[in-house]
Amino acid sequence: MATYINRIADHTLATDMTAFAGVLITGPRGVGKSRMAGRIAASTLQLDANDDRSLVLADPDGAISGRAHPLLIDEWQLAPDVLRAVKRSVDQGDGPGRFIVTGSARNDLLQDLWPTTGRLIRHRLWGLTGRELYGTAAAPSLFDRWNDPDQRFVVPESPPTLRDYIRIALRSGFPDAAQLNDVKVAQRWLRSYVDEVATSDLRTLSAPGTRLKDPARFKSYLEAYSLNTAGVTPHSTIYERAAINKATANAYLAALVSLGVVQELPAWGTNRQRRLFVERAKRYVVDAGIAAAAAGVTVDDVYAEDDLRGRIIDTFVAAQLRVEAEASEGARLLHLRTRNGEHEVDIVAEYRRKLYGFEIKAGNNPDRTDARHLIWFRDEIGAERFGGGVVFHTGPHRYEIDEQIEAVPIAGLWG
Asked: Mind listing the pLDDT tens digit for each residue in 100-154?
């Protein structure tokens, strides 16, 4: 990565380092965990370097003692016992801001427990958002500034066109790809990333008894999953398309969740009316550029195909909202679909006892028809509990559609 791009998570990380003994930063490979942590570390143990790793494997407690704080322990999963050494050091006490531990989420599958529970506060880092690339990362999260309509969304003077949005989405939020000016070059980087996940990361997860030994079949599964991103799709539809059995598919899905490559949004539904709602999760590849690379599709493909276009734009907006929710004071993302298929809301956010609804359209002039599910949702839960609704679109204008519901260009998230 040529230059450091300020992250929305920078402020949260700095604040937590003044209050807690340390932080544990997880997230997909390549999202910039080490770079972000390294900016505030006073010393580093780099566990993907042979000398540091062998020292930690031989003497984890000694390896972390006597070093300047904050001590960055990078790629912890390469010597997992280091977490127990951190736990012992934290339990002895010596004030906040002592450790920053970074690494892939992949060992979540192989660890029975996080030995640092209650000692380190956990951060999850995702890819770069449009706000980090084109706006200001310093503003509070979307949800924390929601009550100020002028600050909630700030639309640039010349927002992107539909094709521009697709180019931005396919360049990815992963820093090394996002900073490449040519989307075709970025997609080559992302295809290499997918290959690395299917080989190196797959081997890491291939413990005895797992079904993770065939990179080609794994890539076929990820391709099928990517073509169904942003969908409430039966798992059988995905693994049958990939021509693999259910048990293998379940192992692949668990691996992708652990690696942070996919995230599944739970379904929303009240206990009183749960029978009315689909309980199946909505499936997302966490980055639209990775989804396109895994599926083998180009900007022209996405632009020309209606279903694919909608899925990629939805996946891209979901990635923006995921980071905003992570940076907020407790926002949680879900989705909604009624069993009869009459109503669905792409993303629902629960925040401070309010519910917010988001519809995502690849079109450029949404009207009341496009907001009908949000209108139904508002009326179903009541205006007092409904925090607001947004139809994100690819046109240039922000305007009110109905009470508490507005149309907002996707670039309004940059503000």
From this structure: 999 875 545 445 445 666 788 989 999 999 999 998 999 999 999 999 999 999 9
Please indicate, yes or no, whether residues 280 and 315 belong to a single structural domain of this protein: yes
- Least Cα distance to 93 among 21, 42, 14, 22 occurs for 21
Neighbouring C-alpha atoms within 13 Å toward the C-beta of 388? 18
| Each residue's pLDDT tens digit, 229-247 | 999 999 999 999 999 999 9
| Residue 343 lies inside a defined structural domain of this protein | yes
List C-alpha distances in Å: 298 to 23, 185, 228, 309, 369: 38, 12, 16, 11, 30
The CA R_g of the chain, rounded to the nearest whole Å, is 22
Distance CA 37, CA 99 (A): 10
Residue 160 CA to residue 16 CA, distance in Å, equals 36
- Residue 264 exposed, middle or buried by CB count within 10 Å (0-12, 13-18, 19+): middle
- What single string gives the DSSP state of each residue in 109-156? GT-SS-TTTTTSEEEE--PPPHHHHHS-TTSPPTTTTTT-HHHH----
Pairwise CA distance, residues 252 & 239, whole Å: 10
* pTM score, whole prediction: 0.94
261 is a domain residue: yes
Tell the burial category of 238 from Cβ atoms under 10 Å away from its Cβ (0-12, 13-18, 19+): buried
| Enclosing H/E stretch for 390 | strand 386-393
Domain boundary, last residue among 124, 142, 162:
124
Tell me: cis bond preceding 70? Omega within 30 of 0 counts.
Answer: yes
Q: What is the pLDDT of residues 365-395, one digit of tens each?
A: 999 999 999 999 999 999 999 999 999 999 9
Alpha-carbon gap, residue 224 to 210, rounded angstroms: 21
Residue 165 lies in a domain: yes
Cα–Cα distance for residue pair 404/376, rounded to 1 Å: 12
Q: Return the ∠ at Cα 357 (arms to 351 and 359), rounded to 5°.
A: 145
Residue 296 region, left (φ>0) first, then alpha (ψ -120 to 50), else beta?
A: left
Which residues neighbour 323 within 8 Å (Cβ) at sequence distance 6 or greater? 8, 9, 126, 127, 129, 131, 132
Last residue of a domain, one of 74, 104, 124: 124
